[in-house]
Amino acid sequence: MRSRPLTRLLTAILCAVGMLGVASLSGCSETGASSASGKITIGFSAWPGWNVWQVAQEQGLFAKNGVEVELKWFDVYTDSLNALATGAIDANSQTLNDTLMSVSGGAKQTVVLVNDNSTGNDKIIAREGITGVADLKGKKVAVEQGTVDHYLLLLALAEAKLTEKDIELVPMATDAAVAAFAGGKVDAVGAFAPFTTTALERPGSRAIATSAEFPGAIPDHLVFKADVVRDRPQVVQGVVNTWFQTLAWIKENRDGAVGIMAKRNGVTVEDYKTYDSGTTIFTRQQNIDAFTPGTTPQHLNHQARLAADFLTSTGLAKNPPNLDGLFNDTFVKAVPE
Prior knowledge:
By secondary structure, the protein is of the alpha/beta class. It has helices at 6-16, 23-26, 52-58, 61-64, 77-86, 96-104, 148-159, 174-182, 195-199, 226-231, 233-252, 254-265, 269-273, 284-291, 300-313, 330-333; strands at residues 39-44, 68-73, 91-95, 109-118, 122-126, 140-143, 168-171, 188-192, 206-210, 219-225, 279-281. Helix content is 42%, strand content 18%. Strand 6 (140-143), helix 7 (148-159) and strand 7 form a beta-alpha-beta unit. The protein is globular, with a radius of gyration of 19 Å.
């Protein structure tokens, strides 16, 4: 979840905007989502803030809001990004950084809902003997380049007056990075839940930095293809309404909801409960506040500028993403109070 091999994503984006000539030569898929019909297809993957969709489906709440939704689960988060970029699905649950990466490549996408902020479930985890970020100088740190955990690592290094040049960065996919850390091959790793659970099983390991220390830096969203938002706003509204009704159901049926979400993520109920404080699900008012332009960490436009700088300064994105029209607060504002 929440990691991205950049070459695959770039190919998908170029396919979506018609910049690669022949589909059969470029690897582009000709299969699209059924946006012309009544059904909407939403992608999601293994992150605590996105399991709410599973509850909505199992409790029949999409139908109660007049929308026909097909949920598509992705074992590999990257595949969900590619699916949205190529139009194979209508919407996806994804991070701000990944949305900006797609937009910088020419994809037309619109953020309509803030699912959550990571408030601890993204972590930099180090071996025994490393007690703080400053101790990472000269050490091997595994992380998937371009991911939110790479971003978190750079934020933590900067706070400790270090840069990426002060460590030995070992670029690896998140699951492989965690395996390398657990096997003693690297000194530290950047990862997200539920992979953090595996990393912390290494004897003596500890989290030396988490997303809780950088409020607002890692927001997660529901992102639609821009044409769906334009052409089918009533469907988008029904999906957004369903999200908040599902949150209300979860509040009243906590044990049942946790059971559903833990099963979807393939973890125990006990492990799932440990993720609660590390993912802050946004209320309607928190959504409205986040969409409102401003210059503090709670504002999406502010975080988008910071994340865009990260993507371009690291060379992950060649062009700055166009932020005009990226955030649409119409739907959260229209949710019945």
